[in-house]
Amino acid sequence: MAGTAKDMLKVARSQIGVRESPRGSNRVKYTKWYGLVGPWCAMFCSWVARQAGVPKDVIPTHAYTPDGRNFFRNKDRFYKRPKVGDIVYYQFPGFARVSHVGIVEKVHRDGSWTAIEGNTDAAGGRTGGQVMRKRRYSVGDLGGFGRPAYTKSKTKGKASAPSKPKTSGKLDVDGSFGPATIRKMQAALKVGIDGGFGTITKKALQRKLGVKDDGEIGPKTVKALQRRIGAEVDGAWGPATTKKLQIALNEGKL
User: Fold this and answer.
1) pLDDT tier at 246, thresholds 50, 70, 90
2) Alpha-carbon distance 246 to 243, whole Å?
3) Among 98, 128, 146, where does a domain finish?
4) Buried b or exposed e, range 220-240, using 16+ CB within 10 angstroms
5) What are phi and psi of 133, to 5 degrees?
6) pLDDT: is 201 or 12 the higher one?
């Protein structure tokens, strides 16, 4: 696929009806692909993007919704009005951050939109365990629409080789587990540097930490990482753990 908005929606539509099994387990093909068992709406969007041929510098591979929101904000591509193909981030009541995400399929005349979302249900929840279409009317104060710089048409002729990403220099200690942090970690692990947290990188990290290298970043791996970098050992990889990781990487102490 060429990585267009049309490709993105074609893949997303093909997934409508997929459910986690067993219910409430967060075990579904998108979490298996990502290598992390947990809330999977962002993993779903990431999986769709990769299947559609959308590059990681257009839609990031992410599991934590604020990381995706920050990615688009940092690129000045975050809006309050929807457009077909947008990645929509929602702030649900009771959360001080965005906590759910989907892919805008249609924009309606009244300003609402229909999105294809992973891990939702008929009530529109954020942990419903299904891929569904949902019509939405609000993103919340912190929510909005990430607008990917999709490919518009196939490029004729031979494409120029992409420049090699830089891994030197200090990371911003901002708690965002994005491509820059992943590239720095990949350099430390001596694996291929592409900015994506894929199976090879995950297994290399697990070997570094001395845990089973199964490519799934579960609580055991996270706790081993937290002990290594001096973070609170709770088995949950959030912004606090990422900040400690960024400090360790800056100091060459992973």
Assistant:
1) very high
2) 5
3) 146
4) ebbbbbbebbebeeeeebeee
5) -85, 135
6) 12
Task: Tell me: do 142 and 69 sit in the same domain.
Answer: yes
Measured CA to CA, the distance from residue 27 to residue 33 in angstroms comes to: 10
Q: Is residue 161 part of a domain?
A: no
Q: How confident is the model at residue 154 (pLDDT cuts 50, 70, 90)?
A: low
Domain count, the chain: 2
Integer CA distances (angstroms), 155 to 7, 62, 161, in order: 16, 27, 13
* pLDDT of the residue at 144: 96
The pTM of the full predicted model, rounded to 2 decimals, is: 0.64
User: Left, alpha or beta for 46 (phi > 0: left; psi -120 to 50: alpha)?
Assistant: alpha
Whether residues 58 and 133 fall in one domain = yes
Helices (H), 141-232: 179-189, 199-209, 219-229
Q: Answer yes or no: is 67 within a domain.
A: yes
Domain of residue 82 covers 5-146
Q: Are residues 18 and 136 in the same domain?
A: yes
